[in-house]
Amino acid sequence: FADFAPIVVFSPLAGVIADRLDRLTVARLAVAFSTVLALALAVLTASGRITIEALFVLVLVQGVVQALYQPVRQAIVANTAARADLAAAISLNAALWHSARFIGPALAGVIIVTWGIWPAFAVNAVSYLSFAVALIYLRLPRRKAARRPWSAVPRDIADGWRYVIGHPGIGPILMIVAITSVAGRPVAELLPGFAAVVFE
Questions:
Q1: CB atoms within 10 A of CB 55
Q2: pTM above 0.70?
């Protein structure tokens, strides 16, 4: 909940922020914050000082960072590909993203069994560094920043919601995503607990 609730709350705001600020700068800051949070989790776990409360705060802050980063990341993909290649770029981006969500936990399982929990968190932190380095060297085509005033943010969010709800494709797809996220995601998150406690 701490991880994904901020995405529900902040993503609409993050979208209009992404249209007003330099996207590459926001992406670099988000990855830098994520790296620091991942390192903090590794250090606290290695030192035996991690608590449920500390974990909750770290995950909550990471959720807020990801909520602000996701719209920027999607926009960067659109900015780096030519229009003719945009569909392929979006598909590749989604494939890489979901592959990482599948491969990452599998690798973490091997690391945890072999070396322990904190090394898995340390490897995760190092993986963020690769993104940070890539973003340092990434160059995007110059674009004119939106000149819309910050006072128009609530109106822009409302316009976005109206567009999504009225769109024959986007609206139903987001509804399906919402239902599967609420009804399906907890099952996957609770599987380790079932494996350990229920099925031993």
A1: 14
A2: yes
CA 109 to each of CA 17, 120, 121: distance values in angstroms, whole numbers, following the listed order: 37, 8, 11
Tokens of 123: 């490897």
DSSP helix, strand, coil percent of the chain (3-state; round to 5): 80, 0, 20
* pLDDT tens track for 63-85: 999 988 988 888 888 778 888 88
Q: What is the dihedral of CA 142, 147, 149, 154, to 10 degrees?
A: -70
**153-186: pLDDT as tens digits:** 889 889 988 998 999 999 999 899 888 877 887 8
Integer Cα distance of 80 and 68 in angstroms: 19
- For residues 70 and 172, what is the distance between their CA atoms, to the nearest angstrom? 20
Q: Residue 108: which of 42, 32, 181 has the closest Cα?
A: 42
CA separation for the pair 26, 185 (Å, rounded): 28
